[in-house]
Amino acid sequence: MAAVPVRVRGIGAYVPKRVLTNHDLEQMVDTTDEWIVTRTGIKERHMAADGEAASDLAYAAACQVLERTGVRPEEIDFIVVATVTGDMQFPSVACLVQNRLGAKAAAAVDVAAGCTGFLYAFHLARGLIASGVQKRALVVGAECLSRMLDWSDRATCVLLGDGAGAVILEAAEDGVEGVLSSHLGSDGGLWDLLYFPGGGSRNPTTHETVDQGLHFFKMNGQATFKQACGVMERACQQALEEAGVTLDQIDLVVPHQANLRILNQLAERMGIPEGKMAVTIDRYGNTSAASVPMALNDYYQEGHLKSGDLVLIVSFGAGLTWGAAVFRWS
Ligand code: ACO
Fold first, then answer.
1. Nearest to 227, CA basis, from 181, 192, 197
2. For 74-123, what is each residue's pLDDT tens digit?
3. Distances (CA, A) of 160 to 47, 50, 78, 276
4. Ligand 1 binding pocket includes 318 (Cβ within 6 Å)
5. Average pLDDT in the 291-307 region?
6. pLDDT of 2-16, one tens digit each?
7. Fewer Cβ atoms within 10 Å of its own Cβ: the N or the C terminal residue of the chain?
8. Residue 134: is it exposed, middle or buried by C-beta count within 10 angstroms (0-12/13-18/19+)?
9. Catalytic residue among 22, 259, 286, 297, which?
C-alpha cells in the first residue's frame, strides 16, 4: 500500500493570562532576576488560573486551530494530546477535549514523553494518516506544570510554565507530501534525569509520599543540560537526512524551549543563522510538551511563516526522549 501524503494544516495556541515574572519569584524563593535571565533566558512565564487544568488549555488551543482552519470537530477522527500533567490519572486529556469539542467521530488518547511529547504525538498521527488508518488528527501539546512544582525549590520552580498548542494533520488531498520526515528516539537508562515519583504504581499516594516530597517534579539540571544539545543535534540531522533536505533549505527551526543557553549552543553547533531559530523562552519559560507548538504559533502570528516554507521542529525531554520532524508549511 502506498503511503498517503500528510500535511500540517494550521496552528493554534492558548497562553494562560496570569503572568509570573522573575521579580515575583524573587519574593517567593532565594533567587534573582539576574540569575534566572543569565542561566536560562527566562524573564516571565504564564500560570493557569485557579481551577484551570490541562484539558482547559488543550481545548482552548484546539478551538483556535479549528477556527483558523475552518475544520469542524466532526471532521476529526483522531485526537492525541501530549502531556505529563493531565487533569487526572485517567481518563485522558484527549477524551475530555473530544467531549468538549463534540468530536463524535474521533478516537482519543494521550501520550507521555515529557518535553518531547508533541514530537511523539505528531509522529504517531503522521504514521496513522500515512498508513490510511486515520484521515485527520488534532495533535495537541498541553501542560499545567505549575501544579507539579515545589514552589520552595528555586532550582526547578523558576524554569517552567503553563500553556498549550495544537495543529491539524490530515491526508493531503492534492497529493503533495507536507510532512517530509519525523524521527524519534529514547534512552530509558536516563529516566532519573527528569521524573515525578509520587502517585503512580511505584509510589502510590500516601501521607508518607506527600511528606517525603515525592509529588513534585525532580530534575538533575546539569546532567540534563549535558544531554540536551547532543540529542537534539543528532535528531535534527536524522530528520533532515530522512527528509532529503539540508539545513540551509530550512526556513525556520523550532526547538523545544528549555534554556536559552541550550538553544544558543544548538544554533552554534549546527550553524543555524540568527533569525532562523524560534526563541520564546523569555516569555513562557519551559512549557514542556506545549513549547514547540506554542513557539510555532508565535512565529506564525508574527508573520514569519509563509506557504511552502520548510520547518524543522526538534525536542528532548523526560525519558530520556528526543525527536525531530521536517514539514512544509501549507
Ligand atoms: N536562583 C539562584 N541560584 C540558583 C537557582 C536560582 N533559581 N537555582 C540554582 N541556583 C544555584 C545552585 O544552588 C548552585 O549554587 P551553588 O553553586 O552554591 O551550589 C548554583 O546556582 C549553580 O547551580 P547549577 O545547577 O550548577 O546551575 P546551572 O548553570 O547548571 O543551571 C539549570 C541550572 C538552569 C537548571 C540548567 O542546568 C538547565 O537548564 N538544565 C537543563 C534543564 C532542562 O533542559 N530541562 C528540560 C526538561 S524539563 C521537562 O522535561 C518537563
1. 192
2. 999 999 999 999 999 999 999 999 999 999 999 999 999 999 999 999 99
3. 9, 17, 29, 24
4. yes
5. 97
6. 699 999 999 999 999
7. N
8. buried
9. 286
For cell 490510511, name the residue.
132
Best residue among 25, 145, 222, 226 to mutate for probing ligand 1's pocket (most ligand atoms within 8 Å of CB) is: 222
Please list, in sequence order, all residues whose beta carbon lies within 8 angstroms of the beta carbon of residue 77, skipping any fewer than 6 positions away: 105, 106, 107, 134, 135, 136, 137
What DSSP character marks residue 48? P
According to CATH, what is the number of the domain 179-328?
A: 3.40.47.10
Provide the phi-psi class of 71: left if phi over 0, else alpha when psi is between -120 and 50, else beta.
Answer: beta
CATH topology of domain 6-171: Peroxisomal Thiolase; Chain A, domain 1 (3.40.47)
Taking CA atoms only, the protein residue closest to ligand 1 atom 1 is 31
CB of residue 31 inside a 6 A radius of ligand 1: yes
Domain regions of the chain by residue span: 6-171, 179-328
Distance from Cα 224 to the centre of ligand 1, integer Å: 10
Question: Minimal CA–CA distance to 49: which of 140, 115, 144, 141?
Answer: 144
Q: Which atom of ligand 1 is nearest to the CA of 261?
A: 39
Q: Is the pLDDT of residue 1 over 80?
A: no
Residue among 45, 41, 46, 82 at smallest CA distance from 323: 82
- Whether the domain at 6-171 and the domain at 179-328 fall into the same CATH topology: yes
Q: How far apart are CA 236 and CA 97, in angstroms?
A: 31
The three-class DSSP label of residue 309 is coil
